[in-house]
Design brief:
The chain is of the alpha+beta class. The protein is built from two helices and three strands. It has a three-stranded antiparallel sheet with strand order 1-3-2, covered by helices on one side. α1 packs parallel to α2.
Length: 95
């Protein structure tokens, strides 16, 4: 991906306060990301997956990410990213 290209959401979060909606932006985005991880691990577990591809998550979301991983029987490997607000996580089956 070209670093000079602007980034934007594929689907705008129109229910967020910044768009006139009732929900606080940061909380909505965190919930959306946690839901995405839940769906991804549900599908991954159904396929018998042992180790996911690395993916970026918000640093503040790590405690919730750990709980989601434990629910599915995975543990989380966390690496630093170049941006402090993000961490790179990989889910690995077992302990």
């Amino acid at each position: 991906m070209d670093e000079d290209m602007p980034m934007s959401l594929v689907v705008p979060f129109t229910v967020c306060q910044s768009k006139g909606g009732p929900y606080e932006d940061q909380s909505f985005v965190a919930g959306f990301q946690a839901g995405e991880l839940w769906a991804r691990l549900t599908a991954f577990q159904a396929m018998g997956g042992v180790r996911t591809e690395p993916q970026n998550v918000y640093t503040e979301l790590l405690p919730q990410v750990d709980l989601i991983a434990m629910h599915f029987g995975y543990r989380v490997l966390v690496d630093l990213s170049e941006v402090p607000e993000w961490r790179v996580v990989t889910f690995v089956k077992g302990s």
